[in-house]
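Thread: Newbie trying to understand structure tokens

Hi all, I'm a second-year student working on a class project, and my supervisor (Dr. K.) asked me to get a predicted structure for one chain before our next meeting. I've only ever worked with sequences, so writing a 3D structure as a token string is new to me. If someone could post the tokens and maybe explain what I'm looking at, I'd be very grateful. Here's the chain:
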Amino acid sequence: MVDMKIADMPVVPMTEADWPAVESIYAAGISEGNATFESTTPSWAEFDRTRLNDHRLVAVSHDGDVVGWAACSPISSRSAYAGVVEHSIYVAPLARGQRIGSVLLSELISSTEEGGIWTIQSSIFPENLSSAALHERHGFRAVGTRHRIAKSATGPHSGQWRDTVLIERRSDAVGLS
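---
Reply by user tm_fold:
Sure, no problem. This is what the structure looks like when written as tokens:
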């Protein structure tokens, strides 16, 4: 278990130098089977191309280790959706249960609001109770369940159709008038 005071934990912009740790944390989430439909991690080039540079963060332990990350992707190239993003948040297995996800999500919300983003959304598996609770604490709401949306390719649910819950957080700071 990583030992740190959450209030003092740096959350900084993600750089290419963070990629090995970010990829390792991402791979752990993939292998556990309740974080994503992805079956492999992307290359840094693909990750870099598909995530918004201003909204990619890492949480760093006092030892300098990356212990979690968050990133956003645009949901559409259409200008009407310029203020809507989909996000991902992952915490290293040994660092879970220490509110690192909460710190990352708070920083991501601040980052997106400063950037004019009015809606953050994601899809989570209904079995991922810790992610559901984390997001609810940060003002996300369930919009609906998408039944049998896709089959899992890896992990304990490999080959099974899975439901996802679409969640969103609408900003109070970014004017929606």
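A couple of things are worth pointing out once you decode it. Confidence is low (pLDDT under 50) at residues 1-5. The CA atoms of residues 102 and 136 lie 11 Å apart. Feel free to ask follow-ups in this thread.
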